[in-house]
Amino acid sequence: MGVNGSLLEFRGLTREYKRGGRTFNAVDGVSLSVEKGDFISVIGRSGSGKSTLLNMGAGLITPTAGNVIFEGTDIYQLNDGGISLFRNEKIGYVPQGQSLLSNFTVLENICIPWFLYRRKGNPSERALTLLEKTGIANLADSYPKELSGGEMRRAAIIRSLINNPALLIADEPTNDLDARTTAEVMKLLGDIAREGTAVLIVTHELDTLSYGNKTYEMNSGRLSLHP
User: Fold this and answer.
1) Per the structure, how many domains does the chain have?
2) Which of 26, 39, 104, 114 has the fewest C-beta atoms lying within 10 Å of its C-beta?
C-alpha cells in the first residue's frame, strides 16, 4: 500500500495532446485515491477525458505530468517492461467492446494473461472456478462467436481476474448490453469489489451508479466528486 494506505493514487495527473496546432489537456491535474474494496464509477460526456484517465491508471498511456502510485510504486518510473509486468500482476483491465480472441476458446482466452509471463502451475483450475462462479462454466470450450454480448463481457472480466489482481479497471463494461445483462455484469463487478478487489470503471449509464460506493465526474479533463 501507499504511505497513506491507498491502493492507487493519481497525483496531479495530466495528459497533453495537440490538435490542429493547438495544445489541450485531455486530463488536467487529476488527483484521486482508490482504497482496497472501493467500487468507483467515473461519468462524463464523450471526450471529457474518462478513458484517457483510465488508460493512464492502467499503465497504457504515459502522463505528460503527475504520478500514478500503485501500492507505493510510481509505475511510470519503471521501464516499459517493468510497467507491463506490473500491470500483468496487479491490474486487471477490461477494454471497451469485444476483446476476446476469436481463434481461442473461452477457457484459452481467460488463461492468456497467465501465460504472458513465466509462472508455475496451470491456470485452468482457477479459470474454471471463476467461470463456474459467474454461471458460464458450460461455455469453457466455446468460441467467442458462439457467445452473446453479455457472455463475452463476463468472460473478459474473468480474464482480467485470472492473475488475482488488486485492482480491476473497466472501460464502459456495460456498453451495448440490454438492461438485464447490464444488471448481471454490474452485480458481478460489485461482488468482485466486496471480495476485496478494487474496481474502477468508466460508464455513461447513470442507472449503474448505485452498484458503486463512489462516483466522480469528468468535465473538460477535470475530475470532481459527483453529488
Assistant:
1) 1
2) 104
